[in-house]
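In response to the reviewer comment on reproducibility (Comment 2.3), we provide here a single inverse folding case reported in full, input and output, so that an independent group could reproduce the run without further information from us. The structure tokens appear first.
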């Protein structure tokens, strides 16, 4: 989808996603997140928007290590 960032499981069983994407992809990405992967259950989605002046070209989407 052309999205950069990371996803990480949290100690409270929630999932934290940090994503960098164009405004045009925002609604589509939110729909994907709300649906979740197969066999998952999404109870709620909280969205916080942050504006960046410059995004590094080397940023990619990855799975981050869970915090203990």
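Designed residues, in position order:
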């Amino acid at each position: 989808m052309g999205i950069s960032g990371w996803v990480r499981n949290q100690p409270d069983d929630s999932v934290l996603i940090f994503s960098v994407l164009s405004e045009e992809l925002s609604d589509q990405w939110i729909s994907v997140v709300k649906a979740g992967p197969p066999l998952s259950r999404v109870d709620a989605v909280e969205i916080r928007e942050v504006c960046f002046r410059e995004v590094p070209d080397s940023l990619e989407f990855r799975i981050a290590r869970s915090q203990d």
